[in-house]
Amino acid sequence: MTVLVRPVAAHDEAQWCALYAGYRAFYRLPDDPAAVRTTWQWVSGGAHGLLGLVAEDADGRLLGLADLRRFARPSSATTGLYLDDLFTAPGSRHRGVATALLHEAAAVAAAEGASVVRWITAEDNTAARAVYDRVAAATPWVTYDMRPSAV
């Protein structure tokens, strides 16, 4: 299967939203069309430093998506790209879609002079981690989340 990876375009909205709803369902997030629409607006408009990539087949059918965000790295005085979301349509898995999206993310990072492409995934997401282990190195860092609160 031929996979073309390119930046997201306005005409991708319906297919992108369906893929992103699938991404949310995969991570057991509640069905929330408003969140999907808001994220589409951010990604398609470049808000918050976001850059959307999509993978499509020869017929223009979207097979997967990757949402990247630029971030500063004060400790190295460089910038990086953070991969917020990566999703491949279930019927397109094991065909190189995720790998193609990751390679394009690396190419974008190189073109922008970024020092790293970074992401997190669920520890039990073994299928994705098998792909990630082929293209990147896992780090020893542990991730924490803190709820915002007034002191």
From TrEMBL:
The keyword Transferase is assigned to this record: yes
Domain N-acetyltransferase, chain residue ranges per copy: 3-151
GO molecular function, one term: acyltransferase activity
Catalytic class of the enzyme: transferase
UniProt xrefs under InterPro entries: Acyl_CoA_acyltransferase, Bact_Acetyltransf, GNAT_dom
Gene3D superfamilies from the UniProt entry: 3.40.630.30
Keywords noted in UniProt: Acyltransferase, Transferase
Pfam families found in the cross-reference section: Acetyltransf_1
Its EC number(s): 2.3.1.-
PANTHER family reported for this sequence: ACETYLTRANSFERASE, AMINOALKYLPHOSPHONATE N-ACETYLTRANSFERASE-RELATED-RELATED
Protein name: GNAT family N-acetyltransferase
Species: Curtobacterium citri
